[in-house]
Amino acid sequence: SSVLRSPRAIAVNIEIMRAFVPIVGLAAAAGLTLYFLGAIVTHLRAHDHTLGWALGFLGLAVASLVVGLAA
User: Fold this and answer.
1) Using the 8-state DSSP alphabet, how is residue 46 labeled?
2) DSSP for residue 6
3) What three-state secondary structure class fits 42?
4) What span, in angstroms and rounded, lies between the C-alpha atoms of 29 and 4?
5) Alpha-carbon Rg of the chain, whole angstroms?
6) Is the pLDDT at 1 greater than 50, yes or no?
7) Lowest mean pLDDT among 7-11, 14-18, 64-68
8) pLDDT at residue 30 above 70?
9) Contact, 40 vs 58, CB < 8 A?
């Protein structure tokens, strides 16, 4: 819509964004879940068992992923 300023071009751009924003959100939630799982595994391999924050953030990432998949 920045190049074509017609109402139809703007409407098409909005529909494209509506289609891809949820996909990007799911990809971000999946990436965060994998990131925090990797962080927990790394801590456990280093025999560091202080996982409080990492488990909390992993829970939030998993919850976000579940809600995104359910929607």
Assistant:
1) T
2) S
3) helix
4) 33
5) 19
6) no
7) 7-11
8) yes
9) yes
Q: Encode pLDDT of 61-71 as tens digits.
A: 999 999 989 98
How many residues would you count in the chain? 71
> Using 50, 70 and 90 to split pLDDT, how confident is the model at 7?
confident
The Cα 32–Cα 8 span in angstroms is: 36
Query: Tell me, what amino acid is at 64?
Result: S
Distance CA 39, CA 32 (A): 10
Between CA 71 and CA 67 the distance in angstroms is: 6
Q: Which amino acid appears at position 43 of this protein?
A: H
CB burial of 28-40 (b: ≥16 within 10 Å; e: otherwise) equals: ebbebbeebeebe
Tokens of 33: 């879940």
Contact 33, 68 (CB under 8 A): no
3-state secondary structure of 48: coil
